[in-house]
Write a structure and sequence with these properties.
Keywords: FAD, Flavoprotein, Monooxygenase, Oxidoreductase
Mean pLDDT: 84
Radius of gyration: 18 Å
Helix content: 10-25%
CATH architecture: 3-Layer(bba) Sandwich
Number of strands: 6
Oligomer: single chain
Largest sheet: 6 strands, mixed
Pfam family, one: FMO-like
Strand content: 25-35%
Structural class: alpha/beta
Family: Belongs to the FMO family.
Shape: elongated
Strand order of the largest sheet: 3-2-1-6-5-4
InterPro entries: FAD/NAD-bd_sf, Flavin_mOase-like, FMO-like
Protein name: Flavin-containing monooxygenase 1
């Protein structure tokens, strides 16, 4: 990984890449661990935000595409929801469960490295591994994350990546 002498190495027990449907749900479920979510774009919503035409609609009824702990408004409406309705639903869910505070928008993970335990760790970003182990005896993942101005290094014991 590139050397970034002036940037600290932040530690989070859980790192989640992507603030789409899965990333938001995982953040809510793991909120008691205070996960950090890296979203490369400027907002949450994943493919519903960035890969949808204005005319896109869900292929299922609302009640078949909802979080079990957060029903759709107008749940019995027989029309398929539009991508804007889906985005509204996702934002409502994220606000309701207060997960927006965990999401770092415009934060693109550009490099990931599995370090393992501290005894076998190599240098991260040209720096000695002095970040400690987030969970002693557990593996460590190291991430380089670019935001609008810097590349910042993070360490995490658990890494969740969404797959499209």
């Amino acid at each position: 990984m590139a050397t970034h002498d002036k940037h600290p190495n932040f530690v989070s027990k859980i790192a989640i890449i992507g603030a789409g449907v899965s990333g938001i749900a995982a953040t809510k479920q793991l909120s008691h661990h205070n996960p950090i979510v890296f979203e490369a774009s400027d907002s949450i919503g994943g493919v519903w935000r960035h890969c949808s035409y204005n005319s896109t609609k869900l292929q299922s009824h609302r009640r078949d595409y909802e979080f079990s702990d957060f029903p759709w408004p107008q749940r019995n409406n027989s029309e398929f929801p539009t991508h804007l309705e889906i985005l509204d639903y996702l934002y409502s869910y994220a606000r309701h469960f207060d997960v927006l505070k965990n999401i770092r928008i415009n934060s693109k993970v550009v490099e990931i490295r599995y370090v393992g335990d501290q005894e076998h760790a190599s240098n991260f970003g040209g720096q000695p591994n002095d970040h400690g182990t987030p969970l002693p005896g557990y593996p460590v993942w190291e991430l380089a994350v670019t935001n609008q101005s810097d590349t910042v290094q993070y360490s995490s014991s658990i890494l969740m990546i969404k797959i499209r």
